[in-house]
Amino acid sequence: MAISYKMLPNFLSADICDKILENIPPPNYDTMPSIDRSVDLPPLNTWYRMEKVPFRIELDLSDEVRQKLNEAIDEDFSVALDRMYITQYGVGEGCEPHTDPAHHTIIVQINDGFTGGVFTLDDKGPYHRYPIELNKGDAVIFSNTWNLHGVKPVESGVRQALAIWINYDKYKYETE
């Protein structure tokens, strides 16, 4: 099966990216809880650690991001729990290939000033890793049915990205 994705250049403006980052609390690495998201629903606006992602915070889906989603997606959809997630990777941190519990995922690069940390898509056939270069504000949307996704280790700086889980309403009853 071929890699199936769509690039969305300049999905968010630099101003919207900056606004998202300015409106989140700074991580407190000393008191950050570890959460198994398959067991517990993380509280909003709280940084936490996960097995796959070093640091993540869950936020209510913003009006600006919802508007951009409506412009980019041509069919009826819903956003899982009406949440968006910001992931943060420091030097040496990355994310092994995995899928998310949604039909599609959108990843938006919301900062710059780091090296490494390249986003990758892998097909579920023979192991092939495809690098996807994203600049601040760029997004990629892909199916979780056919693709694994991950992040190569960051070499310098801090990488922050926004993740949104999308489900299509026409499949609502097939996934419940």
Would you give an account of this structure?
This protein has three helices and 13 strands. The protein is mainly β and 176 residues long. Strands 1, 2, 3, 4, 6, 10 and 13 form a seven-stranded antiparallel beta sheet that branches. The model has no long low-confidence stretch (mean pLDDT 90).
What class would the helix/strand composition place it in?
mainly beta
Which range does the strand content fall in?
Answer: 35-45%
Instruction: Provide the helix percentage.
Output: 10-25%
Number of strands: 13
Order of helices and strands: EHEHEEEEEEEEEEEH
Low-confidence stretches: none
Distance between the termini: 26 Å
Q: What profile does the largest beta sheet have?
A: 7 strands, antiparallel
State the shape.
globular
Q: How would you name the oligomeric state of the polypeptide chains in this document?
A: single chain
The number of helical elements comes to: 3
Architecture blueprint of SSEs:
Elements: E1 5-8, H1 14-22, E2 55-60, H2 63-72, E3 77-79, E4 83-89, E5 95-98, E6 104-109, E7 115-116, E8 119-123, E9 129-132, E10 139-143, E11 147-151, E12 154-156, E13 159-168, H3 172-175
Antiparallel strand pairs: 1-10, 2-4, 3-13, 4-13, 5-11, 6-10, 6-13, 7-12, 8-9, 8-11
